[in-house]
Each structure stands twice: as structure tokens, then as C-alpha cells.
Amino acid sequence: MTAPIRVLVCDDQVLIRTGLVTIIGAQPDMEVVGECGDGRTAVDLSGRLGPDVVVMDVRMPVLDGIGATRLLAGAGVRAPVKVLVVTTFNLDEYVYEALRAGASGFLLKDAPPGQLLHGIRTVASGAALLDPGVTRQLVGRYAARVRPAGGSPDDTPLTPRELEVLRLIADGLSNREIAGALVISQETVKTFVSRILAKLALRDRVQAVVYAYRHGLVA
């Protein structure tokens, strides 16, 4: 039997946290190993409990979800933990910063339970989770403000074809959709994605989206 996915739930709203714990704990392939209401406790518990996934709220006391995500999964962390950020539409700027901090994906708090569970399983498997319906709105809205002044498409080491694939990733397209748009196979798309991540030293598609916006590759 496969070991259950170990989940730590962090949200300062007790009712929401209790609901998340109940939904996740009812799954045969998941186990809630802990819960807390602030980012500092999330970091401490993660070190002690070793969760596979941390479901993280953004706005919390003591240490917010962005700071906690940076400590759990940011650059230089020796044993990064997979973080799934949950938020509301009016917190999208904070989600952008959380993705930059190392989060593996995000979901909206009003997402149905099935989507939450799918998100946890997706992140636990090592894949990134970006909701295509809100990716462009979410990241693009703040791209101009957070993009370095010197950012330019000429700064990237990617080939023209790889740039084309990266732009489609930033638009929220799946591998299948990219294959259809470029009239190539999905295996070829996977190869391009792997090359892009390797050349840019990126961990996953989430970081690829952030890179694309920060370097002016997407309008």
C-alpha cells in the first residue's frame, strides 16, 4: 500500500481550518499530521512533523503565509517542503509573492472540495498547480510593478521555440494545449519544458510563469 499524503493545514480562521482538516482527513490517501493558525508555527511544525504538503493561508498573524513559504520552500532551503497556497480573489498580489517565495501552487478558498483534494495530490506528486482560469489575471496584474527595471526578453538563454513554449506556459496552457497550438506532440512539449526549467534553473511551471512575467516575456 502507498503511504498516505501527510498534510499540515495552516489557516488563522478556525472555521476554515476545521473544514479543511475535516475534508482532508476523510480521504483514505491523506493524513492530517497537524494544524495551526500562524506561519511561524507552521514552520516549526513542519520541521518536527515532516509533512508532504503544507496547505497555507496567506494573511496570518506572527508570520504571514509568504514569509512562512519562503522559509519552507524558498531559494536556498536544503529540504524544501511543498506548499499549496489558498487565498481569495482580493489577495492575488500576495499569492504572486507566495509563488515567488517557492509555493508549488495556489487555489481559491471557494474552490470545491474535490478541487482542493486534487490540488494536494498534484502538488504532492511533484507537479505544479496553477489554475489556468486565473493565472494570467493573477500574475499579470502585478507583473509591471514587480518586474525588474532591466528585465528584457534578450536576457534569457532560451531559443525562439523555447520562448514560445514558455509564453504559452505563462498563459496557463497545459502540455496538451501547447501541443495543439504548436502542432507538435505532447512528448516534444515535455522535452521543451524540461529544457526550459533546466536552462533557467527553475523548479517547476509555477516558477516558469513568474520568470516569464518578471523578464518581460509576457505582456
Automatic annotation (TrEMBL):
Gene3D superfamilies: 3.40.50.2300. Keywords: DNA-binding, Phosphoprotein, Transcription, Transcription regulation. Pfam families: GerE, Response_reg. It comes from the Bacteria. The modification 4-aspartylphosphate is found at D57. Residues 151-216 form the HTH luxR-type domain. The keyword Phosphoprotein applies. Residues 6-124 form the Response regulatory domain. This is Response regulator transcription factor.
